[in-house]
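User: My instructor asked us to take a sequence, write out its structure as tokens, and then describe one feature of it. I'm not sure where to start. Here is the sequence I was given:
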Amino acid sequence: MPGMDGFETAALIRERERSQHTPIIFITGLNRNDNNVFRGYLLGAVDYL
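Assistant: Let's start with the prediction itself. The structure tokens for your sequence are:
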């Protein structure tokens, strides 16, 4: 995504009261290391594929 990554997007989704409970699923074909997976779950992801 130009200008913003998925982690920043997830943080914005969680900041808004209206979308706090929206399920977030991270899907990547680029880099699935443990740090990124952990960071995704900390931001409220329900899955990381």
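For the description part of your assignment, you could build on this observation: The mean pLDDT is 90. Try explaining in your own words what that tells you about the chain.
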